[in-house]
Amino acid sequence: MERMPVFVKVEEYNDVLSLIKAIRRKMEEAKETLAKINELKNEEDHQVELWQNSLVEIEKKVDFIDHSLSEPEQM
């Protein structure tokens, strides 16, 4: 694509610069928000993994108790 010059009226030049600055600020805010969301997601994933591991441990214990109660004691 061929680069063509862009002409802006001098009266609107400062408005365009202000608009570009505002857009850049909003982009930085969006990046920060996404970083926070990602951090929260990682924390959530970690908590879910901990709960999952706890559930597996509880299930093993319940299975052991169930098996112990179902089998007569061997003497």
What does this structure look like?
This protein is an all-alpha fold. It is 81% helix and 0% strand. The protein has 1 helix and no strands. The chain has one helix at 10-70. It is rod-shaped. The termini are far apart. 0% of the residues are buried.
Distinctive features:
1 helix, mainly alpha, 75 residues
Total helices: the number is 1
Q: What amount of the residues lies in strands? A: under 5%
Percent range for helical residues? over 70%
Instruction: Give the helix/strand class.
Output: mainly alpha
Rg, rounded, reads 31 Å
Q: What average pLDDT do the residues reach?
A: 91
Low-confidence stretches: none
Overall 3D geometry?
A: rod-shaped
Quantity of strands, as a count: 0
Write the layout of secondary structure elements.
Elements: H1 10-70
Give me a quick take on this structure.
Helix content is 81%, strand content 0%.
